[in-house]
Amino acid sequence: xxxxxxxxxxxxxxxxxxxxxxxxxxxxxxxxxxxxxxxxxxxxxxxxxxxxxxxxxxxxxxxxxxxxxxxxxxxxxxxxxxxxxxxxxxxxxxxxxxxxxxxxxxxxxxxxxxxxxxxxxxxxxxxxxxxxxxxxxxxxxxxxxxxxxxxxxxxxxxxxxxxxxxxxxxxxxxxxxxxxxxxxxxxxxxxxxxxxxxxxxxxxxxxxxxxxxxxxxxxxxxxxxxxxxxxxxxxxxxxxxxxxxxxxxxxxxxxxxxxxxxxxxxxxxxxxxxxxxxxxxxxxxxxxxxxxxxxxxxxxxxxxxxxxxxxxxxxxxxxxxxxxxxxxxxxxxxxxxxxxxxxxxxxxxxxxxxxxxxxxxxxxxxxxxxxxxxxxxxxxxxxxxxxxxxxxxxxxxxxxxxxxxxxxxxxxxxxxxxxxxxxxxxxxxxxxxxxxxxxx
Length: 440
Known about the structure:
By secondary structure, the protein is α+β, with helices and mostly antiparallel strands. The chain contains 13 helices and 13 strands. The strands form 4 sheets. A 4-stranded antiparallel β-sheet has the order 3-4-2-12. It has a 4-stranded antiparallel β-sheet with strand order 6-5-9-10, with helices on one face. Strands 7-8-11 form a 3-stranded antiparallel β-sheet. β7 (134-141) and β8 (148-154) form a beta hairpin. α7 (233-262) runs antiparallel to α8. The chain is elongated. The protein starts with a helix and ends with a helix.
């Protein structure tokens, strides 16, 4: 089986798989295209945390991811920015006040005991039992009054500590504090170990938010919201429509230019560009890649790079045709001579993308990722798809015409052909008598 036939089979299989992926998957849209809330949090130092170290930020990010996941927002993003900041994106979430209230709370649950000081004053003292000792929390309702309450269950270590505490406080109040505020102070009636309940003047929403926060875990540090942005769904839809229009318009203009200037190779390049767009979007959906405005910009830029590779190949091919080579030889030589330039330019682009992805944030990462994927796919389509289709078309004798490649018959020089091929023929020892005479 010829190489072109193998490549053609690979192209057909890749096309079928890409169509299947696109029909089965959905495009994941970022906040700027879907609408939603973006919040920037900054970890704050305190008496307990005098310095924001990397391990604290890792715990901070993990706790915040749990908290955001509890909101049930699809494609949410929690990523570090600098040394002590986290950027949180909630696509499709259009309640900024609820987001700020939920994200910004430290969610610190404390159980405290009542102690009388030497001067007769009453104050609350930490007991050592906190929200970290919880296994889980659940929303419940009082069987008699119907009032909302919070049921909680302790983990193994917490059960031991809570048992010891309640045994000590039988007949005395147990203070329950959430984020430094007293929720309730029930009198301990019996020894409790596995769990209990927190009552208060709760609405169902308040109880649910507290349960979600407790189950997600307290933040290891206090955090302050230093930046917030809200993108409405209508604005996001408008951005998506304009991005789609810009991409299709750019692709159409490039396709018309290639067809008009390079004729048959341009037509082949247009087919390769359509397949390029198909393969690239299939990869975006399969990974999946969250598309943002910056990501779409990276994709559109990679279209230009794909065309650039075709232009280098076609110009090299035209030079070979002008030297009098056959179309098959001109195509092979044109691809071989253009490959080094294409490879070098794409590798340098990929290196830049790697640096941007490693050091950038949010939109910069999206731009770098989509551009890198586009560059890799463009190399495949420019070198494999374009070359295979050109050979297939040129295999038909009735289209083996130089003008179909943008070369006039008058530009094909027999002298150039002879001068170019003579050193090679001389090296091979096949100079004929006519050649020898011409050299005298």
